[in-house]
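testing teh design pipeline on a random one, pls ignore if ur not involved
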């Protein structure tokens, strides 16, 4: 049974999450402060952490940074703060995803499943399969419905980066830095060109993508096509 740690000072939210997650087969531990959350995370090593940014003893951003010094499993931010600066700051500091309160329980559960699925996929997995899309890392080939699709080296690197982080929102600057280097940070139009190229090659309808989803003003998310 997967274990989830909830760090949130609102008792109503903690109770809602406990009921929702337990009914979906998860074991749940809840804490109301950043300090309690950090101690529990260290002692229990949960499979996923749900973290609120507005904690009573210290900023959720601070707790996130402390967790990411050693905690490698997914962290999902759940907060009333919805401005893009907070979202980007959280994602750039290691959060896997971000949901704004009030949230839909169905969407929360879907994000949790996606984060856990991505986390269990080993880095050296030779084959990544998403419905009709298959990526063979050993052969460096991509097929759709068993038909080979050809990519440039940069297109392939971008696709692999997105696919390996399935379900996680990757910010614009993170993608630019990882693929092209620090000199390209901020050059959003450059990234958009390559995303459009990928969509034209792997999506059934590039105007209504099923795999590469835009998170407005933040970045992109690769989803499994479910």
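output:
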């Amino acid at each position: 049974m997967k274990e989830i740690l909830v760090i949130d000072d609102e008792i109503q939210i903690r109770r809602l999450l406990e009921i929702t997650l337990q009914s979906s087969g998860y074991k749940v531990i809840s804490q109301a402060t950043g300090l309690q959350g950090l101690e529990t995370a260290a002692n229990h090593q949960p499979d996923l952490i749900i973290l609120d940014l507005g904690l009573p003893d210290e900023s959720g951003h601070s707790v996130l940074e402390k967790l990411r010094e050693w905690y490698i499993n997914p962290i999902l931010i759940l907060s009333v703060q919805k401005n893009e600066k907070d979202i980007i700051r959280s994602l750039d500091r290691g959060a896997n995803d971000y949901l704004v309160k009030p949230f839909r329980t169905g969407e929360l559960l879907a994000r949790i499943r996606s984060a856990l699925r991505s986390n269990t996929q080993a880095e050296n997995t030779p084959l990544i399969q998403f419905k009709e899309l298959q990526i063979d890392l050993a052969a460096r080939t991509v097929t759709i419905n068993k038909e080979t699709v050809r990519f440039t080296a940069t297109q392939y690197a971008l696709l692999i980066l997105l696919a390996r982080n399935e379900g996680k929102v990757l910010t614009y600057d993170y993608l630019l830095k990882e693929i092209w280097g620090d000199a390209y940070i901020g050059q959003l139009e450059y990234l958009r060109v390559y995303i459009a190229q990928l969509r034209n090659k792997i999506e059934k309808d590039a105007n209504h993508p099923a795999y590469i989803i835009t998170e407005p003003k933040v970045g992109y998310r690769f989803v499994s096509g479910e």
